[in-house]
């Protein structure tokens, strides 16, 4: 088969698998909705319960200033939360007889996985929109951002979602069951708590700063903040993109290698 | 019949130290039903998983649909359809959505996909349940949906791994009808089963897999000739009558505990009359007379002895 034929087969089968994934999400929305609860609850908790204390500790500005600080981090946390759902649903899917059927069909090998990624990224974008709407409802405003900055912010969210989703697919394939997949994916929820999502890295103890700095969430959060609120981005933009590209490549290679192995 | 749809030579597969297939040879003619029989754990499913490209073989020259399995698995996949032992339907979506998913993956144009899906759902008596999630289907319905999905791509070679295990007798007969119809249409069917009756009913050729090898292969009739011929069994209630009969029927194998005598016989009228004449001459009458012709059960137990619990009634014969 020639390269263009292979590509067109890959695209066609992947979009079929993506539709299957979205059909699952539409039939059983509870998994997606449950994953939204954590970021929304954290948003409300940190704004209405801890908001005054947090903003006082960060140089004032009151609750509304803290809403602005918090929202970019929570949007990316929402992406991490969706990725946990991906790991669980991939792991569950692999135990289904239908995946064995897919393996015996003349379809593009990777399309099963790409379908999960496509579906999950769309779910992540939808989840981010929901959390974003809650944020706007409680006072988040991004009046200074230009159309180009909005576009870049959206692009960053999609890229970040793609990166975490490919990693989550690898985690799901490597797990013997759904519980293990969920455990494997826990770092995707924990990492944002250890990042600059809730407090600036400057305010953290010295020994802890490297943990916050050398991980994908912090540069991505700082970039999103810069795009939406006009704060300094500096190197964080390139760092965020580099992290995302590296995670996509790593996750893709890991996932396709796991899937290529003979099933048990 | 123009050649072999499926051919395996020296197929080997081991999982760790455990050798599952130790040099399996088979050939299946186009347009025929081939049945692989064997006790649980004999490796039937492993053969299907390998021939359907799901897992790799350790060694062996394997061709399916004229394509080499190792060199061109995608070409093999384009020629085959597989219905595994465990239902290969997507339980989260409806029966119709499952069918349309298959149509999309076979790259059928939308209109044709809808037509094929609707036709097969109708044919397999699933039209009423088409809009319900497949997870709510009964076992028989799931199996029918499974086969219907396999047929969407119009495969020329179909692997059916224990297609009737767990089905009630009515569903089993429905499934047999489906399989016969497929072969009438020129499809080659590779069937594994643990029901000997199923193989006897359906298969043109039967192979018995035992200890990782093909223990015997042939038509049902050929296999039945492997085991000693039929026998006549006489049962008595009166011990003295039993002893008198045993004295005249010297070729019979006696079973003193059960008061039965078994003697080799093809079951013809002439042979039976000879036995009855001998009994008459001794002045005894059997309480029960049964004629046994060898069936696949006998073949199966003869070939796989030790691997399964032997049927006591068969032991008395030998």
Automatic annotation (TrEMBL), chain B:
Q: Where is the ABC transporter domain?
A: 6-236
Question: Does DNA-binding count among this protein's keywords?
Answer: no
Q: Which UniProt keywords apply?
A: Antibiotic resistance, ATP-binding, Nucleotide-binding, Transport
- PROSITE patterns hit by this protein: ABC_TRANSPORTER_1, ABC_TRANSPORTER_2
Entries under InterPro entries matching the protein: AAA+_ATPase, ABC_transporter-like_ATP-bd, ABC_transporter-like_CS, ABC_transporter_ATP-binding, P-loop_NTPase
Q: How does it sit in the membrane?
A: Peripheral membrane protein
Compartments (UniProt record):
Cell membrane
Record-linked SMART domains: AAA
Task: Quote the Pfam families the UniProt record gives.
Answer: ABC_tran
Q: Which PANTHER family match?
A: ABC TRANSPORTER ATP-BINDING PROTEIN, DOXORUBICIN RESISTANCE ATP-BINDING PROTEIN DRRA
By what name is this protein known?
ABC-2 type transport system ATP-binding protein
Q: Which organism is it from?
A: Streptomyces thermodiastaticus
């Amino acid at each position: 088969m020639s390269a263009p034929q292979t590509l067109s087969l890959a695209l066609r089968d992947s979009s079929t698998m993506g539709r299957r994934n979205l059909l699952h999400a539409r039939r059983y929305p509870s998994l997606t909705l449950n994953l939204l609860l954590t970021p929304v609850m954290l948003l409300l908790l940190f704004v209405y319960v801890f908001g005054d204390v947090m903003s006082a500790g960060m140089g004032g500005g009151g609750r509304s200033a803290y809403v602005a600080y918090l929202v970019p981090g929570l949007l990316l946390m929402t992406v991490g939360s969706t990725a946990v759902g991906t790991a669980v649903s991939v792991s569950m899917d692999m135990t289904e007889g239908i995946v064995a059927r897919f393996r015996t069909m003349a379809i593009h090998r990777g399309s099963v996985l790409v379908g999960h990624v496509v579906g999950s990224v769309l779910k992540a974008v939808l989840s981010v929109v929901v959390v974003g709407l809650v944020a706007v409802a409680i006072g988040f405003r991004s009046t200074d951002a230009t159309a180009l900055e909005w576009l870049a912010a959206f692009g960053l969210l999609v890229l970040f979602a793609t990166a975490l989703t490919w990693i989550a697919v690898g985690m799901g394939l490597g797990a013997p069951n759904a519980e293990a997949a969920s455990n494997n994916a826990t770092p995707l929820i924990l990492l944002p708590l250890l990042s600059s999502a809730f407090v600036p890295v400057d305010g953290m103890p010295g020994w802890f700063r490297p943990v916050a700095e050398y991980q994908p969430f912090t540069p991505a959060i700082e970039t999103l903040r810069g795009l939406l609120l006009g704060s300094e981005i500096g190197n964080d933009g390139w760092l965020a993109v580099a992290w995302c590209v590296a995670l996509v490549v790593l996750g893709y290679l890991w996932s396709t290698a796991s899937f290529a192995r003979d099933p048990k | 019949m123009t050649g072999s749809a499926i051919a395996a030579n020296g197929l080997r597969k081991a999982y760790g130290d455990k050798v599952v297939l130790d040099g399996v040879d088979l050939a299946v003619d186009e347009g025929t039903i081939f049945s692989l029989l064997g006790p649980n754990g004999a490796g039937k499913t492993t053969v299907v998983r390998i021939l359907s490209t799901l897992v790799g073989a350790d060694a062996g020259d394997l061709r399916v649909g004229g394509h080499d399995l190792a060199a061109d698995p995608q070409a093999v996949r384009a020629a085959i359809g597989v219905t595994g032992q465990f239902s290969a339907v997507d339980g989260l979506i409806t029966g119709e959505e499952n069918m349309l998913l298959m149509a999309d993956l076979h790259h059928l144009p939308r209109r044709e996909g809808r037509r094929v899906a609707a036709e097969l759902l109708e044919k397999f008596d699933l039209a009423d349940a088409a809009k319900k999630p497949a997870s709510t289907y009964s076992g028989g319905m799931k199996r029918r949906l499974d086969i219907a999905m396999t047929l969407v791509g119009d495969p020329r070679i179909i692997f059916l791994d224990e297609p009737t295990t767990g089905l009630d007798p009515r569903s089993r007969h429905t499934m047999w009808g489906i399989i016969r119809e497929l072969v009438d249409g020129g499809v080659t069917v590779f069937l594994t089963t643990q029901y000997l009756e199923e193989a006897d009913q359906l298969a043109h050729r039967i192979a018995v897999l035992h200890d990782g090898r093909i223990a015997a292969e042939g038509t049902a009739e050929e296999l039945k000739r492997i085991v000693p011929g039929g026998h006549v069994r006489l049962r008595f209630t009166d011990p003295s009558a039993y002893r008198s009969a045993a004295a005249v029927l010297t070729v019979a194998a006696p079973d003193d505990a059960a008061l039965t005598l078994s003697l080799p016989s093809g079951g013809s009228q002439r042979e039976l009359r000879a036995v009855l004449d001998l009994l008459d001459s001794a002045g005894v009458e059997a309480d029960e007379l049964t004629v046994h012709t060898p069936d696949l059960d006998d073949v199966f137990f003869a070939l796989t002895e030790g691997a399964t619990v032997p049927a006591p009634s068969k032991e008395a014969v030998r």
